[in-house]
Amino acid sequence: SRVAVLISGRGSNMAALIYAARADDCPYEVAVVASDKPDAPGLVLAEAEGVPIARLPSAKDKTQFFAGLQSALEAAGVDLVALAGFMRIIPDDFLARWEGRIVNIHPSLLPRHKGLKPHQACLDAGERITGATVHLVTAELDSGETLGQVQVAVLPGDTPDTLAERVLVAEHQLYPRILGQYLGRTRDFDWISNKVGELAL
Ligand code: GRF
């Protein structure tokens, strides 16, 4: 399968997806990396790793940006879109086109602590365990079907930054693994729907 990774910043989850894809038994390759921020550090990293990057029109014009993104994904023959620290609300028409084929990673055990500052929220709630979630992206923020989670212990004295740093280590292992699993699942769906199509004929 050909995966596009969308980033806005550092791109450490993007890097984890790229490195995992180098294993012989990895079921996907990172076909393209795109960002809404032309100066995202992750783009430099992707380029250095030999992964094609899409230079898109300014994200200030939302319609133009997502139209450009759609063309770039089509040109790269992408099957699935993986958001990795992509800090933009995605318009409904784009989501509709990629329904069931767009995933995200969020650094909390969803449905707990959706949105921004999940680590702060976790600490404020006095929780002992947090983690990360890979989920399908739907119109409602951080609310699509959960595909996989990993738990991470909260330590006494943790700050949002120390917690984020530890959760990130777990994210890097979770994301490629769950993406691979999900691609296996969707391949089965494709096979079944193709068979159903053949039978219907
Ligand atoms: C990660 O914690 C991810 O879960 C969240 O944003 C952060 C992105 O970090 N959505 P990076 O750009 O992948 O390093």
UniProtKB/TrEMBL annotation:
- Site (Raises pKa of active site His) at D142
Q: Give the keywords, sorted.
A: Purine biosynthesis, Transferase
Full-protein residues shown = 5 to 205 of 320
What catalytic activity does the UniProt entry give for this protein? N(1)-(5-phospho-beta-D-ribosyl)glycinamide + (6R)-10-formyltetrahydrofolate = N(2)-formyl-N(1)-(5-phospho-beta-D-ribosyl)glycinamide + (6S)-5,6,7,8-tetrahydrofolate + H(+)
Taxonomic lineage of the native organism: Bacteria, Pseudomonadati, Pseudomonadota, Alphaproteobacteria, Sphingomonadales
Q: Look at the named UniProt entry and state the broad enzyme category this protein falls under.
A: transferase
Organism per entry: Sphingomonas cremea
Which biological pathway? Answer: Purine metabolism; IMP biosynthesis via de novo pathway; N(2)-formyl-N(1)-(5-phospho-D-ribosyl)glycinamide from N(1)-(5-phospho-D-ribosyl)glycinamide (10-formyl THF route): step 1/1
Q: Gene name on record?
A: purN
Instruction: State the name under which the record lists this protein.
Output: Phosphoribosylglycinamide formyltransferase
| One GO location term (cellular component) | cytosol
